[in-house]
Amino acid sequence: MPVIDSLIRSEADGTISFGNYKLETKSKLQDFEHAGDLYKIKTFHEITKLERNGLFVYESVPGTAANHFSANPDGVEFSVEGDRDAQITIQLEDDTEYEVYVDDVAVGGMKTNMSGKLVVSVELNEGAACRVKVVKR
After folding, report:
1. Rounded to an integer, what distance in angstroms lies between the CA atom of residue 3 and that of residue 102?
2. Residue 88's beta-bridge partner residues?
3. Could you report the per-residue pLDDT of 42-52, keeping only the tens digit for each?
4. What is the second-level CATH architecture of the domain 8-136?
5. Cα atoms in the Cβ-side hemisphere of radius 13 Å centred on 103
6. In the sheet where 97-102 sits, what is the strand order?
7. Does residue 2 surpass a pLDDT of 80?
8. Does the reported pTM lie above 0.90?
9. Spatial contact of 122 and 85, defined as CB atoms under 8 Å apart
10. Share of the chain above pLDDT 90, in %
11. Which stretches does DSSP call E strand in the chain?
């Protein structure tokens, strides 16, 4: 499914899916509860942004749909879909080295900045998911 019609949803495997890059106008939903946390999603064709408990988690420019997003102390993993290439910013641990995989291919090591943000660019074609995995070294 390329977009999340309800903007955000919990999946049976304990992950979340969010975003709708086909919307012409910005839509948002806040106070979505999942695993004891409150999420806020803003999404449309220009940007998708996710916050957890008021803190930044994910942002893509242009907008995307992220499926089965899971975060743990060692990194994040999700599938992403969109209608054009996207730049994705993910909140991780401050000043830490990570290995980045796109479609199971290592694209190299990256270090987060002092605020813990890591930026990944992905090539997207509508209807085809791209798998992103970021693992602490």
Report:
1. 20
2. 60, 120
3. 999 999 999 99
4. Sandwich (2.60)
5. 8
6. 8-10, 16-18, 65-72, 75-81, 130-136, 97-102, 105-111
7. no
8. yes
9. yes
10. 93
11. 8-10, 16-18, 27-34, 37-43, 48-52, 55-61, 65-72, 75-81, 86-91, 97-102, 105-111, 117-122, 130-136
